[in-house]
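SEVERITY: medium
COMPONENT: batch folding queue
REPORTER: lab tech (J.R.)

DESCRIPTION
The queue accepted two submissions in a row. Attaching both inputs and their returned structure tokens so the on-call engineer can compare them side by side.

ATTACHMENT 1
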Amino acid sequence: MNAPAASTATADNLAGDSPFHIVSIRSTRAPTGNPGHDWFTYCIAQGPNQINGYRRGDLEAVTFEVERIVAALNERRGGRRGRVELKPNRRPPAPASGA
């Protein structure tokens, strides 16, 4: 008898299970229409997903800011824990008119 085929993880499952992390931060030319020579491009990844962006500053400042972005993304993906009980907003019945 054949063993069942091993399940393959989809890209969605891989992304859902892995945290965001910095792939690279590199010096680059200024984006078109922007002045200065102190630009960096960065890449953040989560599984197969990538976020690419530009930051201006020195390497230390840019690295700090990109690390803050990664921390915020990972905090958001954690979601809220526990249950929330919603209570309907019900008003008490209006008093009967004295007619």
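ATTACHMENT 2
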Amino acid sequence: MSAANGLAAALLLLLVSPVAGLSATAPTWDESRVISEATSGLFHSPKGKYFDEAFGDSLEYDAEVVDLNGDGRPEVFTQVFGSYWGGATGVQMNLYIKRKKGPWEPQFGFPGVYNVLKTRHRGYPDIEIGGPGFCFPVWRWNGRRYAPYKGCP
């Protein structure tokens, strides 16, 4: 990651705080196992690097295990840093949610920085997607997956 991309990603992370306080109240999980399972083995720990075949280089990532809806089961946020996947934001983000019966399902998979809001719908919090500019869209749980709720003009 270039110094400029690293600085941009760091500034965005400071401006748009992720899941402040949610991890502290969640049950204790084997984070590395949950992260690996959710990402189908792509990531193995809360922080690290992985080799991206399409990019042909190693990229840094962060992963955070949380319980967004308070059901005692983990969800996993991931962030991959670099302009290759993260565009002008410098961060590609995703959220993995495991169904009661079935596989982990990715929810986003696009550039942005997540900010978990206090507002909730059907048990899950709304999520604001930060990036360059001054307007940030909000995504809302519709009972099956996260979908756009409030856009930007």
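NOTES FROM REPORTER
Residues 3-111 form one domain.
No errors were logged for either attachment.
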